[in-house]
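Not sure how to ask, but would you mind making up any protein sequence you like and the tokens describing how it folds?
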Amino acid sequence: MSLFLYSCGGGDGAKETASPASPSIGLTYHSSNQGRALINVDGLSETIFTIENSSSAQLTITTEMSDLVAGFSVTNNQCQGAVLATSDTCQLTVQYLRDDNSKGSIKVSGIAQNGNDHYRSTILFPVFGIVDPFNSNMEEYAGHIDPNSNFCSLIDPTLVDCHLYKLGQVTSPAPDAWSTGAASYPLAFNAPLIQTYFPDQFLFMTPLVVKHSCSAAEFYFVAQYGSTVSGAIDTNNRQDNVFIKFHPLMANGVTSGVAGHAVNFSGRLNLSTSSGDNFVENTSQSAHDSVWSGASNVAGLQQLLNTNNNTYVTSSYKDSNSGKTVYAVNSLLNKDDLQALLIYLQTNPNPHEIDTPADAPDLQEPTFQASVRQYREIVAQHCLTGFN
């Protein structure tokens, strides 16, 4: 982000003789992390501010940190005392090393001298720090799906007695939800899901779901198995159309979203994949039974489910009726990394350090780690003062 502030004027007011024309002076700035809040995790705890002299006058720069609260620190301050000609820049780095929500500000001034007169331009830019959205104790799923059942072992016999976890404001459907219609499969958590038109049981395997909210937006991280029962998507079969399904967020599958009580919803969907595919359009969907209509399809999502590689999907959906926006990162895992995540979650009640090799040595696959970072960045972009 950039901020333009111009000021001109000066002198002691006692002279009546003409003085040189007052220069128009100004400073602009931008941050290397595009204005996101800082999070105390590797790679997201600091940002570099670049200050530019956008005027025609030469400016002497001063910096003031009195409003920079505890937790923030400034390093490599090249701006204090710097003399900047037109278009010259200087930089300073801000770090945040606390695990709570905080806000501070930095004042940068540029002083120009014109004869005996001085002219000052000042910018005051805020800095934000927030809690890591993964930094909280998880809760184990204790609903109607028996972890000792074939829900896990159907994927692989070694997944018997697997446990599913939620973090934040995640809810679960009722035991008899989504049990009417042509297909009926269990899901543990209400969250956006990458799913086929006729829901595939394997795609309901969600070891970890995270939900936070701020303002009129909700933010989901969904780790889910990225393969189907058949192991392949038939791109010529309408039942294998693949879309992101928000139906569990729009209806409860018991008294709404069932035959005779359909819930129709529409909005603007923006979706991108780790493979570089993008999809943007207005979409209309209907929750009316366990087959989540319409039969929408994104070819790029079908391709993701036809590989054995980890991938992830980033999406935002703004509902036309409520105005609420749902952001989601769906991390689609192959069998090996699914199992590694299941094991990690059972022995680490707080996944704050899920990105560190020391804490999660078997979860360092780059695409999975990119999905974790993507979720943190989205929350930090939209929840500058923290989340609920």
Observations:
- The CA atoms of residues 76 and 334 lie 42 Å apart.
- The radius of gyration is 26 Å.
- The chain has five helices and 20 strands.
- Confidence is low (pLDDT under 50) at residues 1-21.
